[in-house]
Protein: Platelet endothelial cell adhesion molecule-like isoform X3
Amino acid sequence: MHVKQRKAVPSEMCHHSALLFILHPSPSCALHIHEHSPGKMSVCLLWIGLLHISLSALWQAANIQAAVTIDEVKLTVLPADNVKSGTKVTLRCEASVSQSHRQPLTHSFSLTQDDQVIYSKNTSDSWMERSFSNARVSNSGGYQCSVHINDKHKKSNTLPLNVTGLQIPMLKVKSDIVFEGGDVIATCSAPEEMGSLVFFFYENDREVRKASSTINSVTTTLTMQKLKDIYLHCDYMVLMQPTEGHSNKSNMVNVTVQDLDVITPQISISPNVNVVEGDRVQITCNVQLYSDLRLYLTRDKTILRVSHTNFTHSLVVRSEDSRDYVCKAEKGSVQKKTSYQLNVTELFSKPIMRMIPDQVFEGERFTLTCSSDVISPAKIRKADIKYVLLKDGQSIAEIATYDDTASLATNGNYCCMAMAKEVNKTSLPFILKAKVPVSVPVLRVVDKVIVGKPFRVSCEAENGTFPITYTLLKTSVPVDQKVVEAADRAIFNITSISFPKDIDNFRCQASNNVRLLRKTSKPLRATVIVPVSRPELKPEEVTVTEGTDLILICSVHQGSDPITFTWYYNTVKLPSSTQEVRSLEGRYVVKAIERGQRGDYYCEASNNANETKKSFPARIGVSLALWKKVLIGVFCILLLVASVIVLTVFSKKLSNPHKKEQATELSVKPPRPKSGDPMRISLTLDIEDNTALNGTPCVMGRNVWSENVSASDSEDHTDENSELLHPQEVDPSGDVPVKITTEPEYSVQDTDVQVSTPGVSEQAEGVSDAHC
Structure:
């Protein structure tokens, strides 16, 4: 066994090597075959040749099979495309195919009617036929043939086939004699028709039933209700060909309907006259026995009893039992009935419940009464009637009169029941709900109360049954009244009040029971807002110095706090100037006021009265700062001194036209000059503040006459607060230099300027005052 396996190895290896060579035709592959089986080289080559030839043949066959094309698909209808019903019709489909190599082909044919496949066939033939031995209307439609060959596909044109003419249907019934209300089982058929059909059934030419079927017949059930001969027939139509209309009528079938008077019942009532409430009556229903029969006793569409045989129904009647009683027999869908009217006389009337008084408040006494009248005195007396009082369906007393005190516990649904001779009657329900007396009302304000403005108040009682009458009082005198039906409170409009204390004059009353006194509220309590009066702006100073603080005080004479003050400068609101205070006065400080801030200032005041009032404007002036005044004063002094010097020189020139030299002494002396000077002109300069709007200081001076001062006295005088100029006397015949002595300090407050010049005192007198 082992030896056989070794002999088989070269053959298997040769097959493997041959496949390897075919898949990988390379020198290395051939070398592989030679190395493993050098002795069998020729056998392997033979295998390789055979495999190569086989694969080449398969490859060529595949190439030849792929070269196929469908030239044309033709569909033919024989004998014609318009035929009558019952004609044999053949549909022939032919395919014209071109191929590169003649070999058998498989044709897959499909035949469709209105896009629905009705026939398929695979064949090697290039044609296919489908025949209808007896064509029917259901075969009408558009037909199309398609062919599949390998991966090729082609369709023919669509050809119509029109089959005209419907078969006459046939009608059959299971029984042509039925009782009234009985059923007739009818079958309508068209044996040679195909497809989905709709059948119509007619009763004396009136359509009574329509039924659809996927086969050529249908069976239905028809109920015969009328007592006469019925003629039935049927026809049909093809569902897919509605244009063909209905077929011709089927054969006519006569059905006879027999009457069912044998099941008509009889009804009797005993006693049937002078029936009074409480009497027992017997109602009997009789009918001739019949199979499948049901017997009913009804009253006002209410079934009292049901039976398959005759029966007697017994009951104790009441006045509401005066009705028509019907005995009805039913067999299938047929009904026969007989009625009888029963009249019942009342034994006593329906009780009536009353309450005295008709309206009751909590805490008040009330009485409930129940009464009924005797209608049949021959049967009962009034004393025979018993009464039971019911509350919420529970018995609370077996009396006709009931007394109690109204409260929340007595509220509920009351009724009474009257009973006599097994007859009981119940009164209509009476709902007792005790009214709640009105509580003391509360008077409140609805809006803000502002002196001199209208406002609203509400009057409300926490408890009390509606309707409630509310009355508004002013100093105990009614001024308005409202009746509240369902709201919670009454709203009253008050025109205005003149003073805050007037709010205490208002009260309100509430009432919902004329038998009780009205309840009066406490006086109205509310916060009364007094509008602010016209504010007044009071600056601490009308004119302030530049750089100082301006304090503006705005005050009102009256107004409820908090009061809001706002300050304005020339209609522009000052920054952070709105203040809310709880006093009649507000302050605003303008820090380090400037000259550009002079002008009109005013303020506004308002409070919760929502009415803003404006003060009259106050005009504020701003004067220059002190250092500016001093600077201007010094400038004016210097200007005045310069002016005096110029005037002096000018006057000397006028007094000495020949330019004679004279001794001139200019002296600036302290406030106490010497009295021995020959001529003295004293000029005093005072710097004063001007409180006018521009605030510009002015320097005023005055002139006094003084004596001439000798040269020796001028030289000897020396003052630390003055500056002296001592010109020497000059010889008229020649020019002599002038000696000037200057002291370092002088007083600005009081300075005398002396000019001593012979012959010029009269000119100096003209210099009286100097203003800057």
Remarks:
- Confidence is low (pLDDT under 50) at residues 1-40, 660-772.
